[in-house]
Amino acid sequence: MALEYIKQINDKVHLAVWKIEEDIDFYQRNIVLSPTDVNILAETTHPEKRLEFLAGRMLCKTVLHSLKITDQPIYRNEFGKPVIPDSEYNISLSHTENYIAAAVGFKIEVGIDIEKPKAKMAKIAPRLYTDEEMEYCNADLVKYSKMWSAKEVLYKLFMKRELNFKDHLKVKPLKKDWTLMSGSINKDDFFKEYELAFYKLEEYFICLNVN
């Protein structure tokens, strides 16, 4: 199987990565889906999206069994957030064409994103970033992409609709190499701050909250 690693980040958070190498038949033979996920898969027609979805569920099965959390399949709630049934643990998933990444948190919410720098980030940045955040990026494509990834993590932590990336989600680099950032969600009567860490994986980087 293509489990790359399970890494303990701290006493609350684990990071796991799966490389997609198997075909769809492998995943269909080796995982059991929750009823909600059965419906989601049935509604997913694109072959690559079906493969990514099943690979993500395979990673969940593998990491949750390895950490002795549960052998029950996860499911999506009404906001699309993955949920571990009957557990004090939380999970978040992200995928690319080659990898699935998962963050598992004990008694804390978690969010994760896996990306690689893309030219489109420079084009959409002014719509998504404050003037101060644009100055942090300094027209650097990698920094634009990391800023996007950090805000994606914040969005997944809140995981409710009607969030504006520029107005409600703020991020700031804490280290010169951009391996650690601070982030905050400020929406109506909700405010919370997080530390967001970055980990390199070939041409990709993974961002997740560590608190």
TrEMBL record:
<feature type="binding site">
    <location>
        <position position="152"/>
    </location>
    <ligand>
        <name>CoA</name>
    </ligand>
</feature>
<feature type="domain" description="4'-phosphopantetheinyl transferase">
    <location>
        <begin position="110"/>
        <end position="196"/>
    </location>
</feature>
<dbReference type="GO" id="GO:0008897">
    <property type="term" value="F:holo-[acyl-carrier-protein] synthase activity"/>
</dbReference>
<feature type="domain" description="4'-phosphopantetheinyl transferase N-terminal">
    <location>
        <begin position="43"/>
        <end position="104"/>
    </location>
</feature>
<comment type="similarity">
    <text>Belongs to the P-Pant transferase superfamily. EntD family.</text>
</comment>
<protein>
    <recommendedName>
        <fullName>Enterobactin synthase component D</fullName>
    </recommendedName>
</protein>
<feature type="binding site">
    <location>
        <position position="57"/>
    </location>
    <ligand>
        <name>CoA</name>
    </ligand>
</feature>
<feature type="binding site">
    <location>
        <position position="113"/>
    </location>
    <ligand>
        <name>Mg(2+)</name>
    </ligand>
</feature>
<keyword id="KW-0259">Enterobactin biosynthesis</keyword>
<comment type="subunit">
    <text>EntB, EntD, EntE, and EntF form a multienzyme complex called enterobactin synthase.</text>
</comment>
<keyword id="KW-0479">Metal-binding</keyword>
<feature type="binding site">
    <location>
        <begin position="94"/>
        <end position="95"/>
    </location>
    <ligand>
        <name>CoA</name>
    </ligand>
</feature>
<dbReference type="InterPro" id="IPR037143">
    <property type="entry name" value="4-PPantetheinyl_Trfase_dom_sf"/>
</dbReference>
<feature type="binding site">
    <location>
        <position position="156"/>
    </location>
    <ligand>
        <name>CoA</name>
    </ligand>
</feature>
<dbReference type="GO" id="GO:0000287">
    <property type="term" value="F:magnesium ion binding"/>
</dbReference>
<feature type="binding site">
    <location>
        <position position="115"/>
    </location>
    <ligand>
        <name>Mg(2+)</name>
    </ligand>
</feature>
<feature type="binding site">
    <location>
        <position position="113"/>
    </location>
    <ligand>
        <name>CoA</name>
    </ligand>
</feature>
<dbReference type="GO" id="GO:0009239">
    <property type="term" value="P:enterobactin biosynthetic process"/>
</dbReference>
<comment type="function">
    <text>Involved in the biosynthesis of the siderophore enterobactin (enterochelin), which is a macrocyclic trimeric lactone of N-(2,3-dihydroxybenzoyl)-serine. The serine trilactone serves as a scaffolding for the three catechol functionalities that provide hexadentate coordination for the tightly ligated iron(2+) atoms.</text>
</comment>
<dbReference type="GO" id="GO:0005886">
    <property type="term" value="C:plasma membrane"/>
</dbReference>
<keyword id="KW-0460">Magnesium</keyword>
<keyword id="KW-0808">Transferase</keyword>
<dbReference type="InterPro" id="IPR003542">
    <property type="entry name" value="Enbac_synth_compD-like"/>
</dbReference>
<dbReference type="Pfam" id="PF17837">
    <property type="entry name" value="4PPT_N"/>
</dbReference>
<feature type="binding site">
    <location>
        <position position="114"/>
    </location>
    <ligand>
        <name>Mg(2+)</name>
    </ligand>
</feature>
<dbReference type="GO" id="GO:0009366">
    <property type="term" value="C:enterobactin synthetase complex"/>
</dbReference>
<comment type="pathway">
    <text>Siderophore biosynthesis; enterobactin biosynthesis.</text>
</comment>
<dbReference type="InterPro" id="IPR041354">
    <property type="entry name" value="4PPT_N"/>
</dbReference>
<feature type="binding site">
    <location>
        <position position="163"/>
    </location>
    <ligand>
        <name>CoA</name>
    </ligand>
</feature>
<dbReference type="Pfam" id="PF01648">
    <property type="entry name" value="ACPS"/>
</dbReference>
<dbReference type="InterPro" id="IPR008278">
    <property type="entry name" value="4-PPantetheinyl_Trfase_dom"/>
</dbReference>
